[in-house]
Amino acid sequence: MKNVVDELGMIQAQIAELRKTEAELKAALIGSGEHKIEGALFNATVVEATRKITDWKKIAIKLGASVQMIRGNTKLSESISVRVTARATDSRKAA
Length: 95
Prior knowledge:
Elements: H1 2-31, E1 36-38, E2 43-45, H2 56-62, H3 67-72, H4 90-94
Antiparallel strand pairs: 1-2
């Protein structure tokens, strides 16, 4: 199983680097001021939108719902996750 942990950690490190590069490329597209950009293989569309998010818990409290009532009407779901972190190397342990 040690190899599986190391492989997963390496994949996650690669994904993190790719996400960083993705964010930089998206920032460049957004900064271009263009909304439709054509590449040789792909097209990109920059969409600006305003999102509305309603805080239903705050509304319920203002309307007199008790914390117990809110808790009683809140659904719980089970989840399983795997967290992988880099191990300290000998040089990092010494520092």
